[in-house]
């Protein structure tokens, strides 16, 4: 089965992102395909490469990056939600006149159309939120 | 969009339901949820909106937000018709529990019981809740 996932809550604050990751991992282990993970609301914070958790804790951002690269999952951060919350890629940083960008490897910034498209193209869109 | 997705152009229309559960200004969910709804209109899908729990407050007339320095986005619900989004469902139990009647709402809606709302959700292909 072809799954798309929506993550609506921030890392370390809410379990939604951990549940989404564990779900994706289990689905892949069962031979399913996870085509896209769409990060919305505070979920966009799953994609900042400046995240530095304590060493004895899971690294939520790196975990997504690794899974995305390894299984060819499209990790999409909503642009409107990201800009409100201070997440920028190189292009957006330049366009907005900011001196830094902070998107983690494997993630990309795009529009909400990517979420609707994921709903259309996948067999199931699974939403993880509050 | 990825080329490896076997998405047929002009394929079957899916039933999308956006479930609004939160009050309009306490959190960002209602505002960002509405942004998804507006984008979905561009994809020619069968879109409906459900309002349950505190989500019914999103449709209440006479919202004044100057004091909290937030944009009053409630007029957008009246503009949905222009996007061909006309299926607005409100759960009767949520409305009654909050002392609201249909006259308090700023748009025409279809009011239904929680059981009917459940049936409606079961018929959907994609359910995204905010």
**Protein chain pair with the most extensive contact, residues per chain:** A-B, 21 and 23 residues
Q: What is the share of helical residues of chain A?
A: 25-40%
What is the strand content of chain A?
Answer: 15-25%
- Total strands of chain B: the figure is 5
End-to-end CA span of chain B: 25 Å
Overview of this protein structure:
The complex is a heterodimer of chains A (130) and B (130). Chain A has 130 residues and is α/β, with parallel strands linked by helices. Chain A has a single domain, classed as 3-Layer(aba) Sandwich (Hypothetical Protein Ychn, Chain: A), CATH 3.40.1260.10. Chain A contains 5 helices and 5 strands, in the order βαβαβααβαβ. In chain A, helix 2 (60-71) links the parallel strand 2 and strand 3 (74-78). The longest helix of chain A is centred in the N-terminal third of the chain and has 14 residues, at 16-29. Chain A is globular. Chain B has 130 residues and is α/β, with parallel strands linked by helices. Chain B has a single domain (15-62, 69-129), classed as Hypothetical Protein Ychn, Chain: A (3-Layer(aba) Sandwich). In chain B, 25% of the residues lie in helices and 18% in strands. In chain B, strands 4-3-2-1-5 form a 5-stranded parallel β-sheet. The longest helix of chain B is centred in the N-terminal third of the chain and has 12 residues, at 29-40. Chains A and B meet through helix 5 of A and helix 1 and strand 5 of B.
Brief rundown of the structure:
The complex is a heterodimer of chains A (130) and B (130). Chain A is of the alpha/beta class. Chain A is built from five helices and five strands, in the order βαβαβααβαβ.
Throw out a few tags for this protein:
heterodimer; A: 130 residues; alpha/beta; Hypothetical Protein Ychn, Chain: A; five-stranded parallel sheet; 5 helices; 5 strands; 36% helix; B: 130 residues; 4 helices; globular; disordered N terminus
Secondary-structure blueprint of this entry?
The complex is a heterodimer of chains A (130) and B (130).
Chain A: E1 2-7, H1 16-29, E2 33-39, H2 60-71, E3 74-78, H3 79-84, H4 90-95, E4 107-110, H5 113-121, E5 124-128
Parallel strand pairs in A: 1-2, 1-5, 2-3, 3-4
Chain B: E1 15-20, H1 29-40, E2 46-51, H2 75-79, E3 87-91, H3 92-97, E4 110-112, H4 114-122, E5 126-129
Parallel strand pairs in B: 1-2, 1-5, 2-3, 3-4
């Amino acid at each position: 089965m072809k799954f798309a996932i929506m993550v609506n809550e921030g890392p370390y604050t809410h379990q939604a992102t951990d549940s989404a990751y564990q779900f994706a991992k289990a689905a892949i282990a069962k031979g399913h395909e996870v085509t896209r993970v769409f990060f919305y609301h505070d979920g966009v914070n799953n994609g900042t490469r400046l995240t530095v958790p304590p060493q004895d804790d899971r690294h939520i951002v790196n975990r997504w990056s690794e899974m995305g690269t390894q299984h060819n999952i499209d990790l999409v951060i909503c642009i409107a939600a990201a800009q409100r919350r201070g997440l920028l890629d190189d292009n957006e940083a330049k366009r907005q006149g900011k001196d830094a960008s902070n998107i983690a490897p494997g993630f990309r910034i795009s529009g909400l159309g990517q979420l609707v498209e994921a709903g259309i193209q996948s067999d199931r869109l699974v939403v993880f939120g509050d | 969009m990825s080329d490896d997705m076997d998405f047929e152009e002009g394929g079957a229309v899916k039933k999308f339901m956006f479930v609004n559960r939160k009050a309009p200004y306490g959190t960002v969910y209602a505002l960002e949820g509405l942004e998804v709804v507006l984008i979905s209109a561009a994809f020619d899908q069968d879109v409906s909106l459900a309002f349950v729990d505190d989500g019914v407050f999103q449709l209440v007339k006479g919202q004044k937000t100057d004091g909290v320095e937030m944009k009053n986005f409630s007029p957008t619900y009246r503009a949905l018709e222009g996007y061909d989004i006309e299926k607005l469902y409100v759960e009767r139990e949520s409305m009654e529990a909050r002392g609201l009647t249909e006259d308090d709402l700023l748009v025409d809606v279809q009011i239904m019981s929680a059981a009917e709302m459940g049936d409606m959700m079961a018929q959907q292909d994609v359910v995204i809740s905010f």
